[in-house]
Write a structure and sequence with these properties.
With about 280 residues, this protein is of the alpha/beta class. The protein is built from eleven helices and ten strands. An eight-stranded mixed sheet has the order 3-2-1-4-7-6-8-5, with helices on both faces. The N and C termini lie far apart (about 55 Å).
């Protein structure tokens, strides 16, 4: 039986080490190599990242700086009609061996878009920032089941869908939300696939977490209609995450707890402040 043709598309920006780690993990994925193509779309044409991609056996595209969604579209143009399924991930993700197999089963089972699990991993003694990052971001199951989209850190799409729908090049963030909701509105099916897993190390510093939050907030200006009338919960001091962290053995003392609470509140406050600017409704 001929293996299904699968392509993996990855945008990368000045991250040769991430590309090397990713390609090492993809080499262990359970799928025949002759039926698996990996395209690294290097946004900004960084030479070291291009060399890392080609050395790892991927097809590297050196592109002008235009953003990750434009890079994904360029990778799709490069692939043409060859793949039967395209899987998107990022250079800082680490797929599990059954990653492609899980997505293929979901697509063969009737899905057009398969949002795979994203496990945000912590170091043995995580910083408060790592814990906040895990609690707030890349909650794929909730995104798919409650909000109607999947993040491109782990998204598989039937090729025929991509013949019709592409990412919005103009967007610098939130393009996965816009793409998935547009495809679903056109009649495509989206589902959560728990056994198609990638790991994503949690951001380790408060600066990295706040950069992520501010990037999301900056992207609101590109899709203001998405926020009009959307309910967002008022920022408040939340002690529940610390209680959970203590129960999990993650908390490292009172100072760690205080730093987690402050950072988590500040992330909430920053997000709510920007969302209100674009018409979101703040609820208790």
């Amino acid at each position: 039986m001929t293996a299904r043709r699968v392509a993996v598309c990855v945008p990368a920006y000045r991250d040769p080490d991430g590309v090397r780690r990713l390609l090492a993990r993809i080499s262990a994925v359970e799928h025949p190599p002759e039926a698996l193509r990996v395209v690294i779309a290097v946004d900004g044409a960084d030479e070291e990242t291009v060399r890392a991609a080609t050395a790892g056996g991927a097809e590297a595209l050196a592109l002008p700086k235009a953003g990750s969604y434009a890079a994904r579209n360029a990778a799709l143009d490069h692939l043409g009609t060859w793949p039967e399924m395209v899987v998107f991930t990022d250079a800082d993700c680490l797929p599990e061996p059954g990653w492609v197999k899980g997505h293929l089963a979901a697509i063969d089972g009737g899905l057009d878009l398969s949002g795979g699990a994203v496990e945000v991993t912590l170091r043995p003694k995580p910083s408060p920032a790592e814990y906040v990052d895990r609690m707030r971001h890349l909650r794929q199951e909730m995104y798919v089941t409650a909000l109607g989209f999947a993040v491109t850190a782990n998204l598989a799409v039937r090729r025929e869908v991509l013949d019709v729908h592409r990412f919005a090049d103009r967007l610098q963030t939130g393009g996965d939300v816009e793409f998935c909701r547009r495809a679903v509105a056109a009649g495509c099916t989206l589902g959560y696939t728990a056994d198609a897993v990638v790991q994503h190390p949690a951001r380790q510093t408060s600066k990295e977490v706040l950069t992520k939050v501010r990037r999301i907030c900056a992207g609101m200006a590109d899709q203001p209609e998405r926020w009009v009338g959307t309910p967002v919960t008022k920022a408040r001091v939340r002690r529940a995450p610390v209680t959970i962290a203590r129960a999990e053995g993650v908390s490292q003392g009172v100072l760690w707890d205080a730093r987690e609470i402050v950072l988590e509140w500040y992330c909430q406050w920053t997000f709510v402040r920007h969302a209100r600017r674009y018409g979101a409704v703040v609820v208790p």
